[in-house]
Amino acid sequence: MKINLKKALFMLTGTFLVAFGTYFFLAPNHIAAGGTSGIAIIINAVFPNLPIGLLMMGMEVILFTLGVIIIGPVFGGKTIFCSFFISALILLLEKIYPHIKPFSSDILVQLIFGILICGMGMGIVFNTGASTGGTDIIAKIINKYTKISIGKSVLIADITVTIIATIVLGVNKGLYAILGVILNSTIIDKVIISLNSYKQVSIISNSGKSIQDFIINELERSATIYYAKGAYREDKKEVIITILNRKQLLKLKEYIKKLDNRAFITVNDINEVLGEGFSNTI
Questions:
Q1: Is 62 among the domain residues?
Q2: Hey, which of 19, 101, 121, 206 has its CA 20 to 30 A from 81?
Q3: Is the Cα torsion angle 169, 174, 176, 178 positive or negative in sign?
Q4: For residues 37 and 125, what is the distance between their CA atoms, to the nearest angstrom?
Q5: Are 45 and 17 members of one domain?
Q6: Which run of H or E residues covers position 127?
């Protein structure tokens, strides 16, 4: 239940960021940086009376059905929650802040802020095993069958939208859209990597048993024990190796500092961990 609640909070945070960035930064400048939001922005630019949120909802139904059939109902359930929540948020924002205008005349700055916010949100959502719907479902399908990273898959799926944006909205807006798609794919990959980064910790200490107990009982992680011989004294050493997230590492460092301030500790960055207790995808 704790894990499900945590994932739900992450999904809510991610979807809010996507809706916020789209409505306040991308839509007012008619920057169609991919996705159903991009398609909706293009249609809205031609037919202003058609609400962006409503257009997005219509497209989501078709692509959601495709996602359920190809990827599965669990992914589909999470995606429909995220996609319709984004559409509903944008509809709500349209009611609260109608006829929103650009914050400034500098489109590039607004593009960067909008894509940064949306990319972070999409990365968070993808990391929960869902998607924000629309062309992101196509990206998830590409990722599943080709193992191309999510960010690059989004780039492949959205490049068509940016080409249409160039034709409908003009070369300048189209070029901004292409830049936005490239930035978006990069940010998504960076966010996913940062959310899944761990630390590999190696510890040599005279209080090895206490440290092992702390890792297992307090941090709820396991560890691997190696035996090595010290080069200076040629004495037998016990090396404890474990993989932790940042929060767990801070707790372990504080504990070891109080227990044995002469302990030898090395820490390495790990970008991906597969197996029991971590990702189940191998």
A1: yes
A2: 101
A3: positive
A4: 16
A5: yes
A6: helix 107-127
- Containing structural domain, residue 176: 2-195
At 101, list the tokens. Answer: 């205008």
Closest CA to 33 of 127, 144, 155, 129: 155
pTM exceeds 0.90, yes or no = no
Edge-to-edge strands, sheet with 264-270: 224-229, 236-244, 198-204, 264-270
> pLDDT tens for residues 24-44?
998 888 776 667 777 887 888
Terminal-to-terminal C-alpha distance of the chain? 25
| Domain match, 190 and 231 both | no
Half-sphere exposure of 204 (CA within 13 A, CB side): 12
Which helix H or strand E contains 212, and what residues bound it? helix 208-213
Residue 167 sits in the same domain as residue 223 = no
Whether residue 134 is contained in a domain is answered as yes
Q: Please check whether residue 116 lies inside any domain of the structure.
A: yes
